Amino acid sequence: MSDAFKENASRLRERWDQLSGQRQKTLVLLALISVVAALGILAWAFQPRYSRLYSQLSVEDAGAIVERLKSEKIPYRISEGGSAIEVPSEQVHELKMKMATEGLPKSSGPGWELFDKSPFGMTEFTQKLNFQRALQAELAKTIMQLSQVEQARVHLTIPEQSLYQEDADEPTASVVLHLSGTKPLAKTEIRGIVHLVSSAVVGLTPENVTLIDARGNILSTEEAMADEDPDATPDQAETQLKIQAQIERKVQREIQSMLDRALGPEQAVVRVRAQ
User: Fold this and answer.
1) Is this structure's pTM higher than 0.90?
2) Residue 113 is assigned to a structural domain of this protein
């Protein structure tokens, strides 16, 4: 085995010596190019593929997320002028869950700044969609001003206006809160959030606003929404709340129908609050 190897090596050396100097340089150069190309292909094959983790981040959220990735020694890339972060594709879902448990990102997307760079010729549908997105984000930002709320998401369902008030669908809203600590929200805080959201959308009543926490617990229960009355029993308070809501909706529909006939559809907005 050793003799055969020495014999083959000797033959190769003889053939190499028989080549001209120029051909030897050419073969060496081709060999180097092949090695570099092979190493480049291997590096590209083993390089992780990146996917977007978050986009449209605020400066504060981007900085907090980057610091978290650095502490975990997770590779990342920044794009879109610092408002988007990319990570290896296979880690996207896991990282999103980790960030969510830590309340990141804290902001809920662009608010009224969506209209700062509105393209010329924007359709009515796009304007309504952007308005709804902006309103949701602004409400979330306001709710997150509460000390116990780390993160908030607001989802609005605003139906198209109908010429016939009786057939019109009522708007609804869902608010998801990620709370800090174990202390629950006070009833006054729950009523305040519900009132804030319902007051921001035309025709949205507090009864159509659902407030839940990150674990899926409903916070806007009838007990929490009922005005505190020391002389009223729980059953009486619940009955009073239902009657009040029914009266408000009935009076609102009747007044709205009268004004629509007198002034024309969508020329007036009615809100009723029964005491």
Assistant:
1) no
2) no
